Protein 1
Amino acid sequence: MKIIISAVCAAILVLSACNRNVVTGSKLTFDNYNQITTGMSKAQVEGILGPPTTVETKDVIIYKKTSYRYEDGNKFAMITFKNDEVDGKYSNLGREP
């Protein structure tokens, strides 16, 4: 029994050290979201948040707009790219307890 409890505690520590939600394993956390800054590339964003839940791309005459949406239950984040660089972001994450 002690071995199982120790293994569970170790798994929780490993997941929390990776800036993941301890319950779902998602990288969509308040701290990770705050690391996203204007001008980052798609690869940099995916390195922090992982692959997006959905992607939408629109070719406008003078630029390309891409939206990455990340979802974890009721929480979400939307990252928008203009010509493959972060142009804006929006979420309902708030400060996690």
Protein 2
Amino acid sequence: MLAAPQRIDKAVKETLANRENTLLVSAASALEVATKVRIGKLIAPGLVESWESRVQELAAEELDVSSRHATLAGSLSWEHRDLFDRLLAAQAILENATLVTVDRNLLALPGVRSLTW
């Protein structure tokens, strides 16, 4: 979303822009982006270095990864092996949050509300 905001569906942008909604950005997302940039799977010049300021521009709150999030992520009976996705799903469940994603794999997990485009 931060790397290519032009790809976000108009309805999703409107939902995210609604200040009645609290926006959370997971520390797991920061780790995933930094990792993918480092290994060359994501080309997003300057994104890692500007991560914190971009989160602030969104008027979002950072969501740290807690041991509760980590233990649920590891315990979910879900065949999906991506640790980042498992953490995001666990955070969405425990924080009663809607997960904004383009990843359709996250739709398969019961208990995760999602907003996709």
